[in-house]
Design a protein that fits this description.
Helix content: 25-40%
Structural class: alpha/beta
Number of strands: 31
CATH superfamily of the largest domain: P-loop containing nucleotide triphosphate hydrolases
Distance between the termini: 54 Å
CATH topology of the largest domain: Rossmann fold
Strand content: 15-25%
Strand order of the largest sheet: 10-11-9-12-15-8-16
CATH class of the largest domain: Alpha Beta
Number of domains: 5
Largest sheet: 7 strands, parallel
Bound molecules: adenosine-5'-diphosphate, zinc ion
Shape: globular
């Protein structure tokens, strides 16, 4: 009997041997179910023919072939590549592609109704027969809600043949986007940019574009134009990757206004039925455009022809759990392997991307101005050492004045602070005790809502105590530093009449609440918005003319490689919320580091100057993008054992030219959820194979099962 090798969706590296039963035709990429130990598991045929390593007598047979087009060879190659680059097992990466196993089975039809030839009580059934004249099959619930008829009336009509039951199948999402539904006249700059992408689509092949333009410059319309081209010529599928949080209703609405239908969506809050339908429609090629969060990159597209990564600089593209990968970087690889164009769009491109532009690897498309000539906001620095807030307050007199002026002009103000809750630290005035999480190296954050202290790392929470848990002194606990709730209290004090709204992930914690909050802002039902970084992404609020950044220094500490860059990006994005239409915007940065380069460059809006200076610094420190990094994170419940294993690993590190091993050292977050953490950082010259170095190093070590070693290639987070 012939043999094939199947990669299953379990954490395994190898594709296993299976017999192909008589009568089953199997080829590369076919979706199958196979036995693995006592279980039946899903997988994909990775190789066919040959001998197999296992004796034929011991080999088990494939149980079932699923009725789907086979996985594209590019996709298979991509899975192999992602696994090897990120040092993850291939089966685990395949699992990301096959994340909806139920979708392997054909979808079950639902019952719908159409008009039949029978007759029954024309008076009573008139509304229904009129509704059904158009011949479209409808589900029972659709008929009852449209006509107000009862379910039993409909059953009776079926019995008399007035209505007839038919099978209906859910329709593939975004199967027929219309490229000519409502095209926009592009500006000259937009046209030039779109033409360059379209030229590449025409010619075929891989090319990475950086679509660089301030928020509101019309980047979205440019890539829509390229998408329209692919749709018009029926060339294949398009994927738009976005940070989950930017996947907003307003974006979906805009897509629908341009193409006449909504895009297919792929994100964490789809229902199981939506997930199943979307997955199948992508695999069969019916769905043309997918807008999704990072995991959408791994879906097995039938025929992917272009990728867009919007907000390419966003740290959310890095997945830090389970399988660690950077979706932005992997997307570029996917495009390269598939020989298709990829568009990275951003107002604040990452240094890595800019470096690739400077080296001539990526093509730069610039949109210098805001669309329609809306002016850029004016940015001022408030030096908190000079313009001091009053005690236990966080808004400087200048900022208070500016907010007042904004209210007088009947416009909206936004106060930005990237910290949830009321206060990040609770301290005892008597004994100095700090309230810490019992399981993490982290302070507990006070939340007035719910009267709780919370850990933002593990979710631990407790009622805010009335006395110090250490010295038991009463009324001695004080809140230190601000969170958005505290700023909201301060705002109430200064502007008692103003209508305020807090926008933070724990408050607007459902999609609906967020939409409602955003609508209230748009409709002008709010005067002052106090928000965390959810406010920074993509939303368009024409009435906001004053933006106050409460603590511009917040992101700068922490010793993270990209702290300054991230800070620049976030502050720039927030500043971009001000004055997007006719109204001029003003931005105020409150800082204790007024002379810092980041502050100056933001104030002068000198982004390229900032990136160049940042590049110089990274180059002299031999840091990415001028070198490669990888991290080993060693964790365990037993503190001493974790440390000893880390030391053992550190000692075993091979010597190699151009590679440096730093550590082990206790992680900055030394404990998370009760697990102790040690870190080792590996830095290698750019042309070195850091994965091979690590594999040879770790391959020979015996690591006790109670300690875990996680490999993070190109780490973004250094905690
Ligand atoms: P970005 O993606 O760079 O933030 P958008 O594409 O969202 O910018 O454009 C900003 C605003 O300008 C949007 O409201 C958009 O509809 C509008 N706009 C952009 N280009 C055009 C155009 N060519 N014609 C009409 N409106 C446009
Ligand atoms: Zn905790």
């Amino acid at each position: 009997m012939p043999v094939c090798r199947v990669l299953v969706t379990s954490p395994v590296e190898k594709a296993y041997d299976y017999l192909i039963p008589e009568g089953m035709e199997l080829g590369l990429g076919d979706y199958v179910t196979v036995p693995l130990g006592p279980r039946a598991v899903h997988g994909v045929v990775w190789d066919v023919g040959g001998e197999g390593e296992v004796a034929l007598s011991k080999m088990k047979a494939v149980l079932q072939k699923h009725d789907l087009p086979p996985m594209d060879a590019t996709q298979m190659k991509f899975i192999d590549w992602v696994a090897s680059y990120n040092m993850e097992r291939r089966g685990s990466v395949l699992k990301m592609a096959l994340s909806v196993p139920q979708a392997l089975e054909p979808s079950q039809p639902m019952t719908g109704y159409i008009l039949g030839a029978g007759e029954y009580n024309p008076e009573k059934t008139k509304a229904i027969t009129e509704l059904m004249q158009d011949g479209l099959p409808r589900r029972l619930s659709e008929i009852t809600s449209a006509t107000g008829a009862s379910a039993s009336t409909i059953k009776t009509m079926v019995k008399h043949g007035v209505l007839q039951a038919v099978d209906i199948f859910a329709k593939a999402p975004c199967a027929h986007p219309n490229p000519n539904f409502a095209p926009k006249d592009l500006s000259r700059e937009q046209e030039i940019a779109a033409e360059k992408i379209i030229a590449r689509i025409d010619k075929g092949g891989f090319e990475t574009f950086l679509l660089d333009g301030v928020t509101g410059s019309g980047k979205t319309e440019v890539y829509f134009e390229a998408i329209a081209k692919i749709i018009a010529e029926n060339r294949g599928q398009v994927l738009i990757l976005m940070p989950e949080i930017a996947l907003s209703n307003s974006f979906i609405r805009r897509f629908a206004e341009r193409f006449g239908v909504k895009p297919a969506l792929w994100h964490s809050s789809l229902t199981p039925a939506q997930r199943r339908l979307t997955w199948r429609s992508i695999v069969t090629g019916q769905t043309k455009v997918v807008v999704g969060a990072r995991s959408a990159l791994f879906l097995p597209y039938a025929d992917l022809k272009m990728i867009v990564v919007d907000e390419e600089h966003d740290p959310a593209f890095k997945q830090e759990e389970v399988t660690i990968y950077n979706a932005r970087d992997m997307a570029v690889v996917r495009a390269h392997q598939g020989k298709i164009p990829i568009v990275l769009a951003s107002a604040t491109p990452s240094l890595e991307t800019m470096q690739n532009v400077w080296e001539g690897k990526y093509t730069l498309l610039s949109l210098p101005d805001r669309f329609g000539g809306a002016s850029k906001p004016e940015i001022k620095i408030i030096d908190l050492r000079i313009d001091k807030p009053t005690r236990q307050h966080f808004m400087s007199p200048v900022l208070i004045d500016e907010v007042q002026k904004t209210l007088d002009a009947k416009q909206q103000a936004l106060l930005f602070l990237n910290r949830r809750g009321f206060a990040p630290l609770t301290l005892c005035r008597t004994c100095g005790h700090r309230m810490e999480c019992p399981k993490c190296t982290a302070w507990l954050v006070e939340h007035k809502r719910g009267n709780q202290l919370q850990c933002h790392h593990c979710g631990f929470s407790m009622k805010t105590p009335v006395e110090c848990v250490n010295c038991h002194d009463k009324d001695s606990l004080v809140a230190c530093g601000p969170g958005v709730e505290r700023i909201a209290e301060e705002v109430k004090e200064y502007f008692p009449e103003a209508r305020t709204l807090i926008l933070a992930s724990d408050i607007t914690d459902t999609h609906d609440k967020l939409i409602e909050a955003l609508d209230r802002i748009k409709n002008g039902d709010v005067d002052i918005i106090i928000g965390t970084q959810i406010i920074a992404k993509g939303h368009h609020f024409p009435q906001i003319t004053c933006v106050g950044i409460i603590d511009a220094d917040l992101g700068l500490s922490g010793g993270d490689l990209r702290a300054t860059e991230r800070s620049y990006q976030l502050l720039h994005q927030v500043a971009g919320r001000a004055g997007r239409e006719q109204l001029k915007g003003h931005v105020f940065l409150q800082t204790y580091n007024a002379e810092q380069r980041v502050m100056q460059m933001i104030a002068e809006d000198d982004r390229d100057g900032f990136l160049e200076a940042e590049a110089d610094e990274r180059q002299s420190a031999k840091m990415p993008p001028f070198s490669r990094l990888a991290a080993l994170i060693i964790t365990g419940k037993d503190e001493a054992q974790t440390k000893n294993v880390a030391i053992m690993i550190g000692r075993a590190s091979p010597r190699a030219e151009g590679v440096q091993v730093l550590g082990p050292a206790p992680a900055q977050m030394y404990r998370i959820r009760g697990q102790f953490r040690q870190r080792i950082l590996i830095r290698a010259e750019k042309n070195l194979n850091i994965q091979k170095f690590i594999a040879e190093w770790l391959g020979s070590l015996k690591i006790p099962s109670s300690v875990r070693v996680v490999i993070d290639i190109d780490p973004q987070n250094f905690l």
